[in-house]
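Hey team,

Filing this mostly as a record. A colleague (T.K.) asked me to run one chain through the structure pipeline before their review meeting, and I want the input and output archived in the tracker in case anyone asks later how it was produced. No errors, nothing strange. Just documentation.

Input sequence:
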Amino acid sequence: MFRTETETPKGKNYIPASKHPVRRAVFMLIAVPILHLVFLPRVIISSKTKGRKGPMMLICNHNSILDPALIYIRYRSPHLHWLAKESLFNIPIATYFLKSFDIFPIDREANDIQAAKRIINELINEHIVGIFIEGGVTLGGNAVANPPKSTTIQLAIKKGIPIQLCSVTGKKYLFSRPKVVIGPTVLLSLREGKKLDKQSSLAISNELMRRVYKMGDQKYYNPEAEKCKRVMQEMVEVRVLDDEHNLWENIEEISNEADIEN
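Output structure:
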């Protein structure tokens, strides 16, 4: 497994769960009631969140800058650290807020190796790394216009890192009731004799994003959807680690009426 291949969290690259716990607690105390009252989000929680640790990756769609905030109000773990584009840290007020939640910057213009090193360091420290693998805010799922970053899924499969699916869908305006689904946690492992390459990783990433959008009752445009689904079935074995409401198996059955508070 991943932890056995790396140094312990107390090494030179140690990152605490929260560098600013008091500041973070104050923000949460203010933000949680405001976000609930303003948006009235509908929430489905199918995996444990309270006090949860990694190493794990949380994969989510991204249609608004408010997505991390709407997830944070119900994901009760200080170990959840999101990636954010480096340019956001050029704004002093935004930097103060982002650092309060231990969100770390990634330079999208840099090579994948640099980003992977930072992600791996977070995972070494037993954190949950939140990643918008479509690369930025997107209005609706589109595998052609906004293909997911396959390197994230490659890393998860090769290193044996669990993946948790998460979805935030719907408009963000007064009383709009966006839907937040904190979904199943799964472990993907290569089937015997299979080798992972860029194309198969992209196909698997697309199938995972289709499931993410389906959890939020939205379409994911991908003309090769059936091929991606078949590639994933042929390439990897899926072990469901945590899925109280069986969302992984019954992904086609989720509807707007299936709101579950937990």
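Quick notes for T.K.: Residues 253-262 have pLDDT under 50 and may be disordered. The CA atoms of residues 75 and 224 lie 33 Å apart.
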